[in-house]
Amino acid sequence: xxxxxxxxxxxxxxxxxxxxxxxxxxxxxxxxxxxxxxxxxxxxxxxxxxxxxxxxxxxxxxxxxxxxxxxxxxxxxxxxxxxxxxxxxxxxxxxxxxxxxxxxxxxxxxxxxxxxxxxxxxxxxxxxxxxxxxxxxxxxxxxxxxxxxxxxxxxxxxxxxxxxxxxxxxx
Length: 171
Fold this sequence. Notes:
Shape: rod-shaped
Helix content: over 70%
Order of helices and strands: HHHHHH
Number of domains: 1
Radius of gyration: 43 Å
Number of helices: 6
Strand content: under 5%
Largest sheet: none
């Protein structure tokens, strides 16, 4: 069969060559080639979108890892400082409780310490959820204020228990 077709095309070759496809055929060819070029544009856009998404995702992962490292560093640094201040507070509270003359104690300072303790717990929760230098500074200030209150109370007790001679002003 292919031999017959080849013979037919060979005999009628000149009749085929002077014929041109209609405008409708050419229009269909142009539409197909235009669609193929648009497909390549869409493929390129999809690849670009995919790669840029991967890049942004990797940066976000790096940022989260940096935040975790920063949280751990803030937490470990703060724990050392916190233990130092708690030790000082504990020593001062022990000194206050060791005074024999507890009649002179003004127990209002204990209410202040309880309020500071409540604020400290709120700040500590904030540090766990959102560690930042401001929160750490607020926690440290809270501890310093506690120590100051205890120092003032110790000074009152020292003044009240000092011998009467040392209280007198000499001229």
